[in-house]
Specification:
The protein is of the alpha+beta class and 60 residues long. The protein has helices at 18-25, 27-37, 49-59; strands at 10-14, 41-45. The longest helix has 11 residues, at 27-37.
Length: 60
């Protein structure tokens, strides 16, 4: 197993809707990568609002 300490799976933080499109277009690549890691990949939608606020703060 390549990632034995991470049995809960890999979490993909998705702030732009990448996962849904990619899994539709390339399901075999996701399964192949998950098999190689030996753990499942779990998408988790996030907001980029905090990043936006931090960037806006820096340019003010």
């Amino acid at each position: 197993e390549n990632f034995p300490r991470h049995t809960g799976g890999a979490i993909l933080l998705d702030g732009i809707g990448f996962w849904e499109k990619y899994i539709e277009d390339h399901p075999e690549k996701i399964l192949e990568f998950s098999d190689w890691m030996g753990i499942p990949i779990k998408p988790y939608k996030i907001s980029l609002n905090r990043l936006k606020e931090l960037l806006l703060e820096k340019i003010r």
